[in-house]
Every structure is written in C-alpha cells, then in structure tokens.
C-alpha cells in the first residue's frame, strides 16, 4: 500500500468560545468553530470574499488550554487531521460530519486583542439561533499579511 497523509494546517479566528466537556472516561474535550477566508477579484473587477467554517475538536491538555485561554475572535493556528463521523439522527437518517481533530493549537494574537468587523457578513454552517460564529473575514480583521512566515 502506498503511503498516505492526513494533515491539516489552519490559521483563523474562533467563531465561538470553546465548549469544554468530558468523555465518559473523564477525558477533557473541547469543540469550537474556526473561520478562515479567502478573496479574489471576479471578472467584473469586484472583490469577492468567501469564509469557510471548520469544526475543531481538541482532546486532553490541549482541550484544557483552549477552554482556559481561548475565546471568540482569537486568532489561532491549528494543526491536526480530518475525520468524518457517521451517526443516525432522530428520524433514522444517516448523517455525516467532517471535523478537524487538533493535535496542536497555538494562539497567534495576545489575549484580549481580538477584533470583529462591524460590516462583514458571510453564510455560516449549520447553526442554531443562539450560536454566534464570530468575525467573518479573519485576515482582514487581523492583518494576516503580517504573519511571520
């Protein structure tokens, strides 16, 4: 069998505060959404911005770090792998979700310096009414062009 690789690297902004929970065995686990964006100029010369939302899952000590030190709007680096889960909903339909299982999380902005854009809007993934997914275009808000790499 040929070698394969399942690796993801993302830089984006948290769309919500991390939600800490514990597995039945007592392992800490955190879930949150992460917004990344890209932009291009269409054939009419108009700027088009697109936001992609990612579901992030973090376990163990990294989960505790996220719960204690990260909050909505923070710019972070995520390293992990893709995983797709399957389950049955209440109507018996088979459902799927693809998540990033994070192995490394690093905050990229000093705590308390996150900002949001007042006029940015973008469609969000499946969300409940009370779920606020945060800033729309992280690179515009944080000046990601100044990233050190």
Automatic annotation (TrEMBL):
GO terms for molecular function: single-stranded DNA binding. Keywords: DNA-binding. It comes from the Bacteria. GO terms for biological process: DNA replication. Gene3D superfamilies: Nucleic acid-binding proteins. Residues 107-149 are annotated as: Disordered. Homotetramer. Coiled coil: none annotated. PANTHER family: SINGLE-STRANDED DNA-BINDING PROTEIN. It holds the Pfam family SSB. It comes from Desulfonauticus submarinus. Residues 113-126 have a biased composition (Low complexity). This is Single-stranded DNA-binding protein. Residues 53-59 bind DNA. One of its GO terms (cellular component) is nucleoid.
């Amino acid at each position: 069998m040929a070698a394969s690789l399942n690796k993801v690297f993302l830089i984006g902004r948290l769309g919500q505060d991390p939600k800490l929970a514990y597995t039945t065995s007592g392992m800490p686990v955190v879930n949150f959404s992460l917004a990344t964006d890209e932009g291009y100029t269409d054939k009419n010369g108009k700027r088009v911005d697109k936001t992609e939302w990612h579901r992030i899952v973090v376990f163990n000590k990294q989960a505790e770090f996220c719960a204690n030190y990260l909050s909505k709007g923070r710019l972070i680096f995520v390293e992990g792998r893709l995983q797709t889960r399957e389950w049955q909903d209440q109507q018996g339909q088979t459902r799927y979700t693809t998540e990033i299982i994070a192995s490394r999380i690093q905050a990229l902005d000093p705590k308390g310096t996150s900002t949001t854009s007042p006029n940015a809007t973008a469609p969000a993934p499946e969300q409940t009414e009370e779920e606020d997914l945060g800033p729309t275009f992280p690179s515009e808000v944080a000046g990601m062009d100044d990233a050190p790499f």
